[in-house]
Specification:
Protein name: DUF4817 domain-containing protein
GO molecular function: nucleic acid binding
Number of helices: 10
CATH architecture of the largest domain: 2-Layer Sandwich
Distance between the termini: 42 Å
InterPro entries: DUF4817, RNaseH_sf
Pfam families: DUF4817
Largest sheet: 5 strands, mixed
Strand content: 15-25%
Domain DUF4817: 17-59
Number of strands: 9
Length: 290
């Protein structure tokens, strides 16, 4: 209840009920309403906020003229400990620090922000070989030049990719970050060629999504050829540029023959009219949007 003030009796009862509820703010709201049906009912945030203020300041409310003085007394030691933990483990969570030091989450954020520290997310990048850079530049330059000649070119390129899924090796990059004053451009190299339980192929052409197709876990030229013949929509083949990477199953002679017949000079891959650079999933929209 932002802006509302409670009497000393109400504050005492609020904290007492919060204790009876064993620190469960939602249960405390229900218990308070049962005990005091004729009073204003504090919301769950009020219970936790009052308890936190008592823990940190020894009072439910801190007068404005005392706020800076109290903060100056407690911040140096607290700030030193917070910064020490960040220096030791830059990827640590502010909530972990808050819990370990028994201070509010916002107090930790305030100290870090005052030191001009920001949380930067870790970036995933493909591990490259020294020989990979020139083909990547050549492909990107060709693609940009083609888009200048034909502004609608991106709407006729079918980008495809296969991925194998399992319940392992899932990383939540939203919650992974590094606290520092300058972006360190932290990266994690991903492992490849692992065996998973489910193999899925999907694609993007313009603003359309090619419905996912389940492929055999062990992909070879025969079953990939069946995919090209049976699962690729006929209505998009006439003016389509087909892209797939240089996986061994994609490079089989019979596969390339079908591609030359179906997409003459209009397929992008190893052996195609425009070679797809090896180890370049970052050039494929499927890597970003699927």
């Amino acid at each position: 209840m932002p802006g509302e003030r409670f009497s000393s009796v109400e504050l005492t009862d609020i904290h007492f009920i919060y204790g009876l509820a064993d620190g469960n703010a939602y249960a405390a709201v229900r218990l308070y309403q049962e005990r005091f049906p004729d009073r204003r009912i504090p919301d769950s945030h009020t219970f936790t906020r009052i308890h936190q203020r008592l823990r940190e300041n020894g009072a439910c409310y801190v007068a404005n003229h005392d706020a800076e003085r109290n903060r100056d007394v407690r911040v140096p030691v607290l700030e030193e400990e917070i910064l020490h933990r960040i220096e030791e483990t830059p990827s640590t969570s502010t909530r972990v620090i808050s819990r370990d030091l028994q201070v509010s989450h916002m107090a930790v954020w305030r100290v870090l922000r005052e030191q001009l520290l920001s949380p930067y997310h870790i970036q995933r990048v493909q591990a490259l070989l020294p020989t990979d850079f020139e083909p990547r530049i050549r492909f990107c330059q060709w693609f940009l030049d083609t888009c200048i000649e034909n502004p609608e070119f991106t709407s006729v390129v079918l980008f495809t990719d296969e991925a194998k899924f399992s319940r392992e090796a899932i990383t939540n990059f939203h919650n992974n970050h590094i606290w520092t004053d300058v972006n360190p451009h932290a990266i994690i190299e991903r492992r490849h060629q692992q065996t998973f339980s489910l193999n899925v192929c999907a694609g993007i052409i313009g603003d359309r999504l090619l419905s996912p197709v389940f492929l055999p876990n062990i992909l070879n030229g025969d079953n990939y050829l069946n995919f090209l013949r049976d699962d690729l929509p006929l209505d998009i083949r006439q003016h389509l540029y087909f892209m797939h990477d240089g996986a061994p199953a994609h490079y089989r002679v019979t596969v390339r023959e079908v591609l030359n017949e179906t997409f003459p000079n209009r397929w992008i891959s190893r052996g195609g009219s425009m070679p797809w650079p090896a180890r370049s999933p970052d050039c494929n929209p499927c890597d970003f949007y699927l």
